[in-house]
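Q: What structure does this chain adopt?
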Amino acid sequence: MGEEGSDIPLAVDMDGTLILSDLSDISAKRVLSRRPWMIPGVFVKEFTGRRAEWKRDLAERLDFAPSDLEYHSGFLDWITGEHAKGRELILATASDRLVAEQIAGHVGLFSDVMASDMSFNLRGGKKAEALVSRYGEGGFAYAGNSKHDIDVWKHSGEVIVVNPERGLLTRIGDEADIIFE
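A:
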């Protein structure tokens, strides 16, 4: 796996990894239950490839407290230790930047936030491209939890699996350097 893991920046996925829920699901439930007239617009944007737009629409209307979310405590303790050692931590998420920045601010460990915005959905291959563009092939570690993270792990210098979804560990085989279940 290339460089020594702890010497390279660590990009951390948010939904299902840092937090044990999905902000898109929370946003949809909280916002759409109070504003059901938005539902047709969300469906139109989803099915016309404009997912980043509906994420922003919901993020602008979402009222939540980051402290109320459930965090993966063992993983959070570990990245707190990595931060204390001077490791650069980046929150890299497909969630909208508006909510990602609130969570990053609450956690207080991340030097930067890479997230979806109104025009760009930072997921899977697009997240991998963004990280490789910034840090180079194998120049970053990545912590994630789902099949959408496999594209990112293919380009990372350290594979960290957190709270893996069913079947994920079988799919990635021996590639995982660190596993938090």
